[in-house]
Amino acid sequence: MKDILAAPFMTEMIRTATAMYDHGWDERNGGNISLMLDEKEAGEYLDMHSVLRTIPTGFSMPELDGKIFLVTGTGKYFRNIQYEPEVNLGIIRLRGCGQQADLLWGYSDGGQFTSEFPAHMMSHSARLKVNPANRVIMHCHPANLLAMTYVHTLDEREFTRTLWQMCTECVVVFPDGVNVLPWMLCGTNEIGEATAEKMKTARLVVWSQHGIYGAGKDLDETFGLIETAEKAAEIYMKIAHLPRINTITDEQMHLLEKRFGIKAREGYLEEPDRGTDK
Ligand code: 2HA
Ligand code: ZN
């Protein structure tokens, strides 16, 4: 059996959680990540028949039966993941219509997966239907995106357009835009279901006055997605109180669409022949 602490999925997870902490996105026990593992790859590092204990999930998701996830632990600090991965992370396999999670590794102090496990698993299910290559759901509390939800309309088209206007590459990195949930109680199946519904049409979902969810095919892509949206929100928070005398126009965004071979979300940009709006 190979050393699991040297597995690429483990080193990448630790590297990513540490970078997120270093960016200030995951204060105290804030934030959580789940990474779907390939069964064959995980089998090189784990005895797949040895179940340490079984944890009830509190929801039913038959479509995820047999799927294996590396998940951050509840109450655990991202800051500490690099020092004690086996305490702060766990690997679980779902079964029994997703109602049971068999622990295969980790949570070694008796802990369990993140309180946002329902939102993660429901979002995995939603994103896999849109993109079978999706592997990552990531949640964190980046300051500027959060700040923006206090002063900007939560209308999804307007929120997205503002972010696209803040950096030239935004529309290229997230052409599907950003969906937005109003404030909701976190850690519940209800916010999980609402997040998954929003994940059907975008890889980024803002939780107002709380944080953001991102989805992607790997940790790098998902981190980069949140990083780009947060950079745009930072610029917005630097200029929101000042008169805006220049911006990126819809016409320019259409040029970006052509240059990078992407298509901005339907109806989010004015069509070229109808001129541009703000
Ligand atoms: O796990 O971020 O939303 C801590 C959180 C809950
Ligand atoms: Zn949170």
Topology:
Elements (H helix, E strand, L loop, with lengths): L7 H15 L9 E6 L1 H5 L9 E4 L11 E5 L5 H4 L3 H4 E7 L4 E7 L10 H14 L5 E5 L2 H9 L4 H11 L3 H4 L4 E4 L7 H11 L4 E4 L3 E6 L2 H21 L10 H11 L18
Parallel strand pairs: 7-8
Antiparallel strand pairs: 1-3, 1-6, 2-5, 3-4, 4-5, 6-9, 8-9
Helix pairs in contact: 5-9, 6-10, 7-10
The chain binds Dihydroxyacetone and zinc ion.
Dihydroxyacetone binds next to loops.
If you had to describe this structure to a student in words, what would you say it looks like?
α5 (117-130) packs parallel to α9, α6 packs across α10 and α7 packs across α10 (219-239). The chain has helices spanning 8-22, 39-43, 78-81, 85-88, 117-130, 143-151, 156-166, 170-173, 189-199, 219-239, 250-260; strands at residues 32-37, 53-56, 68-72, 89-95, 100-106, 136-140, 178-181, 204-207, 211-216. By secondary structure, it is α+β, with helices and mostly antiparallel strands. The chain is built from 11 helices and 9 strands. The protein is elongated. The model has no long low-confidence stretch (mean pLDDT 97). It is 39% helix and 17% strand. The protein folds into 2 domains: 1-115, L-fuculose-1-phosphate Aldolase (3-Layer(aba) Sandwich), CATH 3.40.225.10; 116-266, L-fuculose-1-phosphate Aldolase. A 9-stranded mixed sheet has the order 2-5-4-3-1-6-9-8-7, sandwiched between helices. The termini are far apart. The structure holds Dihydroxyacetone and zinc ion. Dihydroxyacetone binds next to loops. This is Rhamnulose-1-phosphate aldolase.
